[in-house]
Sequence to fold (508 residues):
Amino acid sequence: MHQSCRAISLSILALALLISAPLAFRAAYFPDDSTTLILNAQLADGTGIPFREAALRIRGNRIAGIGKLSPAHGERVIDAHGLVLAPGFIDIHNHSIDGLDSDPFGETQIAQGITTAVQAPDGDSPWPIKDWIEHRGKNPAAFNVAVFAGHATIREQVMGKDFKRISTPQEIEKMAQLAWQAMNEGAIGLSSGLEYEVGSYSNTAELIAMARSAAEHGGFYSTHIRDEADKAFDALLEEIEIAERAHIPVDHSHIKLGTVSVWGRASEYIRVIEEARSRGVDFLADCYPYEAWHSNLKVIVPDKQYENPKSVAKAIGDLGGPEHLTITEFKPNASYAGHSLAEIASTNKLSPVEMYIRIIREGDAANTEAQVIGHSMIESDVKAFYQQPWVMVASDGGIGSAHPRGAGTFPRVLGRFVREKHWLSLTEAIRKMTSLPAQRLGWKDRGILQEGAYADLVLFNPATVIDRSTFAKPQDLPVGVEKVLVNGQLVWDSGKATGARPGVVIIR
Ligand SMILES: [Zn+2]
Fold:
């Protein structure tokens, strides 16, 4: 069985390599061996070491040299005086599966300096993985992509509509096999979203079995844990248990403490993680730079008693009150969008609890859910997480995001957390956006400025870079990111997309 699996895996690998760099595509984007020289920039190589002034030469899709270089005859030169040159930013938690088809230029992504965006976190993924990889290979975007195998997606493949229960040992075995298959097809790891409907019914054993499949392929486990609120500590312990028993590196998705009872407890949370790390657990986390999350209306009620006034009242109280919850989208009643639960309740002359239950019922009747933004984190916790060396920057946004993080994450960290608040140094922030996610992904030739690495590059102005997207205008583009190159091709230049789509699918 192992033999045949390996044969299949090799042929799929060969296929995927062809897809990620077909000859026709190479001819179109790298017509010759011409070079570009970037002069006078401050280089941050991605590892966190201090800036150095050096020139960088690009040949084709790679970095050809770094140092004291002068222009060759006829060579294209970019004068980057006053700018920082860094590896392109790697967003390890990005939701652009739909957006890649509707908007492959992804202005909101490349304008931030994102050159690679990892898709299908939180447990939902395309299926089968190989079809998606093939489709994306034929329809390149401006930036590179990679994809997780989704735990909930695989669970549904095996359990169908009968998922509201713990799986049997036979079902677990089937899920582990499918995770194995997805990894063979090119997934870079397993993602889970244990606060969401399908994933929430799984038990720890199921997750360990699937994580083992991913680990056997050198993948990692990206997890939106079971609870980011009152039971955030229990959920963290389950995650650590999965990491230890499956021997798998983890990326704790969008680390946060999201209810009143756990506010201010970041240092305790960090201590639990530090203990696990000191035992050898390979634990990294990512964190988006906002005090508000974006999800669906049901996630706030952990016991799933969505129509039980007591459960709902507790849930709303835990978030800090009904004014902390804003509806961003609701198909059955578009007039709710843009308003807080407190406002909608008072308009309808109902209590916030009654209003919540009404929205749930309206959603269930239309087989949909309200999308909400919850303002329920506090700055001191976000700051404490950002200051940990094992915390990466990631957006949890993507093309068309209703949350400002979709267009603002990376410039926001550079402009607000580094320049204005001095929470961390600029080179450390860049490390969190480049070599640290590359390390989690197992990539040695991206996320770093070194000879031979892919020329995924960003040039930004450290004095002006900042986000402009807001909850009212989530698509507004940031400023200060001057040029972005993906695989040696300019995709973003002086406030505009160039129209080039040199992104590839990066497979495990
Ligand atoms: Zn999530």
In short: The chain has a mean pLDDT of 93.
